[in-house]
Write a structure and sequence with these properties.
The chain has 404 residues and is of the alpha/beta class. The chain folds into 2 domains: 143 residues, Aspartate Aminotransferase, domain 1 (Alpha-Beta Complex), CATH 3.90.1150; 239 residues, Aspartate Aminotransferase, domain 2 (3-Layer(aba) Sandwich). The protein has 14 helices and 14 strands. Strands 2-10-9-8-7-3-4 form a 7-stranded mixed sheet, sandwiched between helices. Strands 11-14-13 form a 3-stranded antiparallel sheet. Strands 1-12 form a two-stranded parallel ribbon. Strand 8, helix 8 and strand 9 form a beta-alpha-beta unit. The radius of gyration is 21 Å and the shape is globular.
């Protein structure tokens, strides 16, 4: 067996199930889960119609193997969306590829980029990650033969990574930097000044930047979040040197089960990434491609989806703010709350007494620089319908009031 598999840690949700395994929740309450960040709004009809049409009108479409690079019409839809959303011109033939959701692509990029044999005398290469973080970053690094390095976060800036705290000796060993903006779990958006810092570091030390932007279309300010490609263009980097961005339909269009997204960026990175994916067998089904084209070409359902989240957060956040330290994020569908105490105990007691599931923040982070930045925090995913989220918030408020 691959010895690197022994380095992987259980996913936060598995650890949460273990924590709850001996707890019998209060039967007076129906279960409400704010734990899993899985969109639960209705899938737009236009996407379902496109998928059905692709099967019924073109049954031969499933009779041949799809190309890993995707159909030209799909890549054209990606490029057109990037132009509408960010004002960018990206070459559909050389600067983008379809992927089976951002998680699959993040893992695959690490396997493509990391060179574990760069110099046998050197220490392991590093993959630098935010902390707290999406656990695939760590797993992808470990299975690529690299060592994850978790950047200290700054609570004063909504737990944004403190890039300036990373020593040059770490950057010198770094082969891949993964950023997440808007962030999970905090919803923080990276400003242009941070992008400039990271591009300068990438130029100096030669590492690749992978930008996870799967929450980019759920935001609460008037101005949409800045994207990595957009930042590169604004800073005079039209070739997107050493940059790959990851975009997904899962959150934007409420189709997590479709496993559809795309990567875009440096053509010099896209080419070997395509080679890896061809051998890995990561081609997208023609049916999913047809549905994806329909999704990327339509913005009306995205606007409506964003309005649903805005309404939900407007109603839920004030209820929780009465009893917890929590505020409306820049973007995303999570609330990252300070419970001023043991986050694991908070989650277990809440589940036992009020049958509400939240995710302890310490399970979303690692101890680094002597501290786990998720300690004392909980993440709440407001993915259910508004009424259910409001009821969960009221139960949490009642719970906190009974504890104090």
């Amino acid at each position: 067996m691959n010895q690197l598999l022994s380095l992987l840690q259980p996913y936060p949700f598995e650890r949460l199930r273990q924590l709850f395994s001996d707890i019998t929740p209060n039967p007076a309450f129906k279960p409400i889960s704010l734990g899993l960040g899985e969109p639960r709004h209705a899938t737009p009809g236009l996407i379902q119609d496109a998928m059905i049409s692709a099967i019924t009108r073109s049954p031969s479409g499933l009779a041949s193997y799809p190309a890993t690079a995707g159909e030209p019409a799909l890549r054209k839809a990606f490029a057109q969306w990037l132009t509408r959303r960010y004002g960018l011109k990206v070459d559909p033939a050389t600067q983008m590829l379809p992927v089976l959701g951002s998680r699959e692509a993040l893992f695959a990029l690490a396997q493509t980029v990391v060179n574990r044999q760069a110099n046998a005398a050197d220490p392991k290469p590093l993959v630098v990650c935010p902390n707290p973080f999406y656990q695939i970053y760590e797993g992808a690094a470990l299975l690529a033969g690299a060592e994850p390095y978790f950047v200290a976060s700054d609570p004063a800036r909504n737990f944004a990574p403190d890039w300036a705290s990373v020593p040059d000796a770490v950057w010198a060993r770094t082969q891949l930097l993964i950023v997440c903006s808007p962030g999970n779990p905090t919803g923080a958006v990276m400003p242009l000044s941070e992008w400039q810092m990271l591009f300068e570091l990438s130029d100096r030390f030669g590492f690749v930047i992978g930008s996870d932007e799967c929450y980019s279309e759920i935001y609460f300010r008037d101005e949409p979040p800045l994207g990595g490609l957009e930042a590169a263009a604004q800073l005079g980097r039209p070739d997107f040197k050493n940059l790959i961005t990851f975009t997904s339909l899962s959150k934007r269009s409420n189709v997590p089960g479709m496993r559809s997204g795309f990567v875009a960026g440096d053509a010099a990175l896209i080419q070997p990434f395509l080679l890896y994916r061809t051998y890995h067998g990561s081609a997208m089904s023609p049916v999913v491609q047809a549905a994806s084209i329909a999704a990327w070409q339509d913005e009306a359902h995205v606007v409506a989806n964003r309005a649903l989240y805005r309404t939900k957060f407007v109603q839920v956040t004030p209820i929780l703010a009465e009893v917890l330290k929590v505020a409306l994020p820049d973007a995303g569908f999570y609330l990252w709350a300070d419970v001023t105490g043991d986050d694991v105990a908070f989650a277990c007691e809440l589940y036992a007494n009020y049958h509400v599931t939240v995710l302890p923040g310490s399970l979303l982070a690692r101890s680094a620089q002597g501290h786990n930045p998720g300690t004392g925090r909980i993440r709440m995913a407001l993915v259910a319908e508004t009424a259910e989220c409001v009821e969960a918030a009221q139960r949490i408020a009642d719970f906190v009031n009974t504890r104090t």
